[in-house]
Amino acid sequence: MAELRYLLFLGCAIPYRVSAYEISTRKVAKKIGIELIEMPEYNCCGLPMEPISYDIMLALAARNLCIAEQQGLNMMALCPGCAGTLHKVNKILKEDKKLRDAVNRYLKEVGLEFKGTIEVKHFIRVLADDVGFERIKGTIERPLSALKVAEHNGCHVLRPAKYIGFDDPENPVMLKRLIEITGAKCLDYMDETECCGAPIVGVNEKIPLQLARNKLSHIRDVGAQAMITICPFCHMMFDVNQPRIERMFDEAFGLSVLHYPQLLGLAMGFSPAELGFDELRVDTSKLLSAIT
Amino acid sequence: MVSERSEGGEAVIKATEMDPKFKYEISKIPGAEKIMLCFQCGTCTADCPIARFSDAYRPRRILRMVQLGLKSRVLSSDVLWLCAACFTCVDRCPQDVEIAGVLRTLRNLAVKEGFMPAVYRELATSVLETGLAYKIPASRLRKRVEAGLPPLPKADVKSINKLAEVTGFSKIIQARRT
Ligand code: SF4
Ligand code: SF4
Question: Which of these, B65, B72, B133, lies nearest to B102 by C-alpha position?
């Protein structure tokens, strides 16, 4: 098996507001035997700047890739936005010489050169492709067989297919399989692959909140006890904003929203406190009492 | 907050408003190359989660406006900023038009014309000052220590500003506010 060593790319949103995702990831990674190395230095992945300028997006992403190349390590990102952007830019710069030359002219100004020697993966892709389901199964100490949950993938882990090339974007199964390893049942629901709306919250809140409400109700309707996310932005949309959505639509959900590594961590036998449960906005006591 | 009103301008389109060369200009930009292949099937709009909850956002319509050359209507339009970049339409377009790439191209051009929602200026300023799109508050940094998380690395702000300069990004951000 390939060596499980990665440079951890944290991005902006996770250190800004979503520490529980990082805390729980580090816990489960260690247990599985994934070695996470800190980025010596990094900047914004580039995605938030793409609407302003495609060129600065390319330059910012490429700069991160160059730092990883200097370390000689593949990258693992927790945010699908970061993972998707870095993966895509890495791919197009490797394939398109003209574009690579153009970006390298920018990078030369800061003493760097993109060479195309590393890979970038999202955390769940590392689990599915590099670690493998059997090895994760071996770390489960407390199967969560009493739980029924629903997944929400996060667009940039799957799409656009031509740049990402992971799982089946129309009918994704990888996160489901990773959830079922914990012993929990993963339920199907309507519009599973639909966006949470978070990327436009800064310009229009009404539409994303309606989208999020729609998903929450589809998930509630199939009887899931929790929703499982793998993106800091999706998580904020469904967890942090859930009380607002409840007030806005005069509708109670009370649906716990966990980061996938929190679910996995519980099944490994870690305590909720060790997995950053105190940061979650929606109460998880009912969920936790169902598994103890 | 960006409103959901439709594209600006009168309801009646005058022939003089159309820039017949706009589509050629656009199709030279990476991501928007296939704009002319759009045959208006409407798959993008039908599958767009934003369109489902918006009265005004219709990707198919934006593509058609570009083909017609309604440059100033498109670039000044608020709806341009409603695409969530979920890429559903990109995966499903039968003509392989990278719709989200076209939207990005239009936004980049709109910014050059002076149209940019305030939130993007804030994010950009943060990138130039700290390297990250969000300024991490001191309380969070303290919490990292308490939680036993490693310290965040310091960003190389000088290099980032150099890249911003050579890509023309700094100039865009310093330009007049809208
Ligand atoms: S799906 Fe493609 S071809 Fe159909 S209207 Fe949208 S962009 Fe045009
Ligand atoms: S990428 Fe934009 S236009 Fe396409 S489906 Fe998603 S939100 Fe709609």
Answer: B65
A78 neighbors A123 (Cβ within 8 angstroms) = yes
Quote the CA–CA distance of B27 and B63 in Å, as a whole number. Answer: 12
> Does A250 touch chain B if contact means CB atoms closer than 8 Å?
no
Q: Are residues A167 and A260 in the same domain?
A: yes
Strands A74-77 and A148-152: unpaired
Question: Do B22 and B105 reside in the same domain of the chain?
Answer: yes
Quote the ligand 1 centre to B94 CA distance (angstroms): 7
pLDDT tens for each residue of chain B, 178 residues long: 555 555 656 678 888 889 999 999 999 999 999 999 999 999 999 999 999 999 999 999 999 999 999 999 999 999 999 999 999 999 999 999 999 999 999 999 999 999 999 999 999 999 999 999 999 999 999 999 999 999 999 899 999 999 999 999 999 998 865 4
Residue A128 lies in a domain: no
Q: Is B77 in the pocket of ligand 1 (CB under 6 A)?
A: no
ipTM, two decimals, is 0.94
Instruction: Write the CA distances from B22 to A52, B35, B88, B100, integer angstroms.
Output: 20, 11, 26, 18
* Residue whose C-alpha is closest to residue A230's, from A38, A12, A98, A78: A78
In chain A, the number of structural domains is 2
Strand order in the sheet with A74-77: A35-38, A5-9, A74-77, A120-122
Single pTM value for the model: 0.96
**Chain B interface test: which of A203, A205, A214 (most B C-beta within 10 Å):** A203
If one residue of B58, B79, B89 were mutated to test the ligand 2 pocket, choosing by the most ligand atoms within 8 A of its CB, it would be B89
Domain span including residue A21: 4-123
**In chain B, which residues have their Cβ closer than 8 Å to the Cβ of A53?**
108, 111, 167-169, 172
Please report, for the domain that includes residue A79, its CATH number: 1.20.1050.140
Is A223 part of a structural domain of the chain? yes
Phi and psi (nearest 5°) for A31?
-60, -40
From the list A52, A198, A205, the residue facing B108 with the nearest CB is: A52
What is the 8-class DSSP label of residue B82? G
Contacts of B172 in chain A (CB under 8 A): 52-53
